[in-house]
Specification:
It comes from Marinobacter algicola DG893. Keywords: Signal. This is Methylamine utilization protein. InterPro entries: Cupredoxin, MauL. The structure is a single chain. It is built from 1 helix and 18 strands. By secondary structure, the chain is mostly beta strands. It has a domain at about 50-145 and about 165-195 and about 215-220: Sandwich (Immunoglobulin-like). The strands form 5 sheets. A 5-stranded mixed sheet has the order 7-13-12-9-10, with no helix packed on it.
């Protein structure tokens, strides 16, 4: 059972044509606790258009991962080049992909293949503050919300008439209460003119936070 508190409101006032054309729906995402807009959240349409696997990188530079969040199709290969003058130890315990690249400088021997969808949380055993996320998807992302928490989602027509009466939307943000998985919303037909979604966010982290959960799990091994 997903632990995140989510709410879906279908705004009244009409609906878009439920025919063969792509449905374009404005979306508004807010924090359920504060009511403030949630910026830079990733939105993915379930069973949407797919993408071919890619070759990607998460670079370690200035003792941080770049980018902090990487979105890739399933079966993509990711390299972890170290551009710092110190060694790093990159690892993940995530069910979508557990791996361990022990102390190294330069470039690892082989990229990591991500062959399962989900959220992969990445850390460095040497530098506790370092954290990144990889979202492995079956569908191309619809995009990210802007500073006002807004995004226009395009829902293409179904491939067949038996595809059902509901569409799933996946939403992810690094400050979700449980950021190890994506929040799922269901949008029913006929599609609404607009959507308001809310998710529960954790407070903004501070520089003096204690050792995070990922590091604590590593220390317990």
């Amino acid at each position: 059972m997903y632990k995140l508190t989510v709410t879906l409101f279908l705004l009244l006032g009409g609906s878009l044509c439920d025919g063969a054309e792509t449905n374009t729906i404005p979306l508004q995402l807010t924090d359920s606790l504060s009511g403030t807009p949630v910026a830079n959240a990733v939105v993915i349409l379930e069973n949407g258009p797919s993408e071919s696997p890619v070759e990607a990188e998460i670079v370690q530079k200035n003792r941080n991962f770049h980018p902090h969040t990487l979105i890739i199709p399933k079966y993509s290969r990711v390299d972890f080049p170290n551009q710092d003058n110190t060694q790093h130890h990159v690892y993940s315990f995530s069910p979508a992909k557990a791996f361990n690249i022990e102390l190294y400088a330069g470039r690892p021997t082989e990229p990591v293949v991500f062959d399962k969808t989900g959220v992969v949380e990445i850390g460095c055993n040497i530098h506790d503050h370092m954290q990144a996320f990889i979202l492995v998807t079956d569908s191309a992302p619809s995009g990210r919300t802007d500073e006002q928490g807004r995004l226009t989602v395009e829902i293409p027509p179904p491939a067949d008439s038996d595809s059902g009466t509901q569409t799933g939307l996946l939403v992810w943000h690094p400050r979700l209460t449980d950021n190890t998985r994506m929040a799922r919303f269901t949008v029913g037909k006929p599609y609404p003119e607009s959507l308001e979604l809310s998710v529960e966010l954790s407070p903004e982290p501070t520089s003096d936070d204690p050792l995070d959960g990922l590091q604590e799990r590593f220390r317990e091994l």
